[in-house]
Amino acid sequence: MASDASSKGSWVIVSSLFIALILTILPLPDGVPREMGYLRPDWLGLVIVYWTLALPDRIGLLTAFFVGLLADLISGSLLGLHAMGMVMVSSFALAAYQRIRMLAVWQQAILILLILTLVQIVSLLITVQLSGRTFSWLTFLIPLVSALVWPWIFLGLRALRRRFIT
């Protein structure tokens, strides 16, 4: 009986993580300037944050690590970079999930902006050190756009969770 309760709606969680992974690695269409890529939200980070806040007993650091590692493998980035970022996002969300859940959605968006900006800074430092590439300040648009998209992610995933999980 306990396994039925814990597996109820798992397909919703897995599907949302899979869709976020696809949106993360989906290339921009031909002819679109490369700079437009900085206006893409961190889909995977947003979905990990939502499920960590909503179901902290089911989604946590281990899930975030494996999803991030899968993103590393699929995208061809430095192995462990996405995994580290997703673990950081999940650990921040887990550390204060009870307080975060009490905030209004716009306040959560501000907190997500801060968390994703911190993760972006750490990822940039690692990438610059290991690959020697320069970075663009436009990369800080990604957390900003993610924070702006958060209310829709939150409302959409909450509707799915309420319908299929609890």
**CATH architecture assignment:** Orthogonal Bundle
CATH level 1 name: Mainly Alpha
Query: How widely separated are the two ends?
Result: 15 Å
CA-based gyration radius = 16 Å
Low-confidence stretches: none
Secondary structure: helix percent: over 70%
Shape: globular
Structural class: mainly alpha
Strand content: under 5%
- Total helices: the number is 8
The CATH topology name reads Arp2/3 complex 21 kDa subunit ARPC3
How would you spell out the order of helices and strands? HHHHHHHH
Largest sheet: none
Mean pLDDT: 92
Q: How many separate structural domains?
A: 1
List the main descriptive attributes of the protein structure presented here:
166 residues, 8 helices, mainly alpha, Arp2/3 complex 21 kDa subunit ARPC3, single chain
